[in-house]
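Hello,

Our lab assistant flagged a job as stuck in the queue for most of the afternoon. It eventually completed. Since we weren't sure the result was trustworthy after the delay, we are filing this so someone can double-check. Below is the sequence as submitted and the structure that was eventually returned. Let us know if re-running is recommended.
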Amino acid sequence: MLGVPNPAAAGYQHPPEQPELGGGYGNQGYGNQPYAGEAYGNQPGAMYGGYGGGGGGPAYNNMPPGAPGAAAAGPGYAKCTSFNLIWFAAACCVMLGSLISFFSEFFSLEWVDALEMAYMFIFGCLMATLDMPLTMEPVLSIRTAIGKYIAILQRVTGKGVAYIFLGCSLTSSMWYNLEGGFMIFLSLLIGLFVVFIGLFSLVVAVVKSRNLNLVRQELQKDGSVSLEQMYTMHAKKEPQMGLTQEEFKNMTPYARGVAFEGADIKLIFNALSSNPRREYMSREDLQAWVHGDMMIFI
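-- returned structure --
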């Protein structure tokens, strides 16, 4: 059993202050929502994503609600980043467009097309649930189920692909089944907005995944022994469970002098952690990521 090494003896010096990478997510984590007192990946009450701090659970910095520096509490609501709100708006557009098409096609007896719109409406509801600024119990239950069965939707990459698919499908269906100039304009407006959000999400995912991969390559150069030392040095809260999000955030600057935002750490845990609530990254998860052959997309 390795003891906790002296950082200087292990060859690691505390890195200088670095500007945090990332942008477009704000200062809140992708998923800081309390989940019945414990976070589903540190989500107060509840992405890929990421929902900011909210009432009912511990803040991202593990400080109790009301303490200086802790996230502000609010009953039933969660603080959202700007990107969460954009994703939520895109999901609402999918729901609105599919609902309009459903009623139009249902009453014109185009029932097969109407069934397609019903499926698309359900898909839009799932996407909206991931990013809506609420922490009600039904919302939390759906988020938990999505994280368990459709975890790809919690990643920025998954959201990007999903919104591109939904935007294209919705535009095509509304264009060919709705009549009138206004409806055609509405189909283009809704569809192109959703597709644009999907494309932008993919660009953000690629940039942030590249930054994470640079850290992985640096850890890979140091070898398994150094990786074990890094893990032992930083996994303090529950070493048998793994690194917490805050511990992983503190570890990455030692590898390459890179500092990630809290929002980025949530996205990283969605992609790398096998823990159902994305609260910990186990030793096995860390080793599989570092010694893997491919870049992981967050």
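-- support follow-up --
The delay was a queue issue, not a problem with the job. The result is valid. The longest strand covers residues 20-21. Residues 27-290 form one domain.
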